[in-house]
Design brief:
single chain; about 475 residues; alpha/beta; Spore Coat Polysaccharide Biosynthesis Protein SpsA, Chain A; 7-stranded mixed beta sheet; two-stranded antiparallel ribbon; about 50% helix; about 10% strand; globular
Length: about 475
Amino acid sequence: MVGGSPNDHRRGKAAVYLLVCLLLGGLPHWLPQGPWRWALPLSAGLIGAYALRTVGLGARAAQAAAALEPQDGFQVQNGQPSQDHPMVGVDVVVAARDEEAVIGRLVERLTALRWPEALLRVWIIDDGSEDRTAERLVELQQRHPQLQVVRRSRQAGGGKSAALNEVLQRLQGRWMLVLDADADMGPDLLERLIPFAEAGGWAAVQLRKAEVNSDQNWLTRAQAMEMAFDAVVQEGRLAQGGVVELRGNGQLLRRDAVQTAGGFNEATITDDLDLSFRLLLAGLPIGVLWNPPICEEAVLTLPALWRQRQRWAEGGLQRYLDYGPQLLSNRLNGTQKLDLIVYFLLQYVLPVVAIADGAAAVLTASRPAFWPYSLVAVALTLIGMTAGCRRTSEGPGLPPASAGNLILGIVHMMHWFVVIPWVTLKMALLPKTLVWAKTAHGELISSSTDYAEYDLAAQVLNCTPEDEAVIASEGGGL
């Protein structure tokens, strides 16, 4: 169990970081004109060239990745592999709180995974549920002996990380697959995922996240495009020796690697992002797999998105505050450091600086100085979303890369220019009590529906409109 930096130390670091960003955004408007002004477009061009190369590599990596992505994997018949491959133990782990709407469907999906019964165990951590989740799990255990249930009290503390740590010591398999309660997948997931992980020598593999309700409204459509864009960027970063990040749902972790990294950090609100950095610092590589995806629900409303993205932003910035000196040490090579710097600037520095730049431009009646960086962010989003949405994908269909959808996607991504500055301000000024806030899920796919009906020719997962009907969805956040 990892403690992490105290929250008051984070607050001080966040305050310094915020001050530096504000000064950086405002200073160009009070400095006299000079050659230095060429530094901004020049640096933006260099950073943009690196970032756009990442997307280009991610798009070009699609063909190579398709050759590596196992289409058949292990074929398991009568509980035994039909190919001469070593079979390894797998523990599927889900931390659940108040998930009675989806827990039955989830367990049915997990126990339907094709893998030797003696080598597969399913763990559900009931983390202080106050609805009928506990009763449903009792019923499910009677039907599925391989289902293991761990119960924690509502006041146990430590959030999802503590829940995962509690079960980590009980696992025996070589791999642990961490899922959210709304996760959905085909029965051949392990047959394809485990060979990919073993062949690549990965310590962890992140599956592409696909939104099953992408056609529900404009917001879910934008989130589906965002997840495709994110996967393309991840593949590109990996292709040029950069840094890959875990995304929580659909992360396959080698158990010994997690233990080497110190388990899950109970002093963070995003265990996946934190673990990504600790695996990186331990020299344990993370891979990315486009197909098959892990399916999940996109939030339906702007308030839900706002709460969810605040949590993501805070957890993302926390890890830089916690591990900054180590990330700049000789534990990482030059390529990894460059990759981290570029994406830290684009993801966390640019939104705060842009707000300060805009405010200073209004006060001084001058033009914004950092517009070249904003142009880079827009170009990166446009090209990345186009590449992702045009790629052959299993699972729920991706929105077409039409002009209207791409404009929607770019406008959607602008929410980070509000979320990041607001979260940075809160982290700098307000004391923090760690609370694990969940995203509530709806029953997207009925437990009686055969989820993984693949079109063998197109290799596209058949998700019917009935399967994607949403009963309810509401986002969680801090």
